Amino acid sequence: MNRPGIAAFFSSGASSVAPRVDALFWSLVLASAVVVAVLVLLNLTFLIRYRRGSPARRGPLEVSTWKFEATWIGLTTVGFLGFFFWGARVYLDMERVPADAYSINVVGRQWMWDIRHPNGRREFDELHVPLGRDVRLLLSSEDVIHSFFAPEFRVKQDAVPGKTVSVWFKPTREGVYPLYCTQYCGTKHSQMTGRIVVMSPDAYAAWLTCGPTPRIAERGRELFTKYSCSGCHDQPSQIHAPPLLNVYGSMVPLQDGTFVYAGDEYLRDSILLPTKQVVAGYQPIMPSFQGVVSESDLLDLIAYLKSLPTAASAAPQPSPAAP
Ligand code: HEC
Ligand SMILES: [Cu+2]
């Protein structure tokens, strides 16, 4: 599985975006091949026609060529700009995560992929996903830069310490597919491989509940006390800090008059970089927990914050079983 041959290069992929990426890729290859062929043919023709001693005419041209030149320049410009807009479209669709996507946390660590499903089920170097569902991966790293590469899904994204990035894909074929780390990340980088298992939604729902599911929200609550978040945030408190109910999924007013959507990235930033976005009406007194909480504790803390009554709980995330 981890040794794709030349066949993988021509594989039709296993995600909704794969055929679109492939169509663009092969069209670019074809267009480049046509350009190369034209250039090589013209070169050969001229080499032969104007070789030394040939009787070909070498004087100034007597016919006007501007129409020919304008057409040539015009058509190629429009053609290649077409590729630009086509590529931009595919790229933007890959970048924009659908709002109701199913979120799974993926942490890169020397040298493994540590994966957590919404109910707390955890797995290493293996990622189970439901078929036909928009799956969003919240990627982060605990140490160095890793890169999540799932070629059959046409997904490749760096996992950078200190921030979370989202990628998404929609699996279209059941099966087992390779997963790699494509950023040199130390001695055992080459062994940082895994598998992505695409299952039917029913099988996925069953798989999700059959393993051990630690109560991450409860662990998060303990950590909330351990890191003394509760000292400031639990009401009543001597310190003026926002109560964290109804935060997740809401629009938070900031000191500079703007609003920010409180998703996973915002919660993470609030804990690691509290001064980046200061909530309106509060002083920036919250200490940064960068380097204090581990990536794993951070995910549990976030899980706890998300388990509190939230603005989003009015419109709950669809269950993984629902297609
Ligand atoms: C010294 C008191 C203090 C401690 C300790 C503290 N916070 Fe805060 N926190 C604040 C204050 C004040 C704000 C509002 C100002 C700001 O945004 O920085 C805030 C903002 C937040 C926000 C954004 C809230 C919103 O309404 O958008 C989150 C989330 C958060 N804290 C989580 C935590 C977590 C988790 C911990 C423990 C790891 C923690 N805080 C520890 C004082 C604290
Ligand atoms: Cu790596």
Topology at a glance:
Blueprint (H helix, E strand, L loop, with lengths): L5 H4 L8 H32 L16 H30 L6 E8 L2 E5 L5 E3 L1 E5 L4 E7 L4 E5 L4 E5 L5 E5 L5 E7 L12 E6 L1 H10 L5 H11 L2 H5 L17 E3 L5 E3 L2 H9 L22 H13 L16
Parallel strand pairs: 1-5, 4-10
Antiparallel strand pairs: 1-2, 2-3, 5-8, 6-7, 6-9, 9-10, 11-12
Helix pairs in contact: 2-3, 5-8, 7-8
This protein binds heme C (HEC) and copper (II) ion.
Q: C-alpha Rg, in Å?
A: 27 Å
Strand content: 15-25%
Number of domains: 3
State the secondary-structure class.
alpha+beta
Question: How many β-strands, per DSSP?
Answer: 12
User: Any low-confidence stretches, pLDDT <50, length ≥5?
Assistant: 312-323
CATH structural architecture of the largest domain? Sandwich
Major pleated sheet: 5 strands, mixed
Percent range for helical residues?
Answer: 25-40%
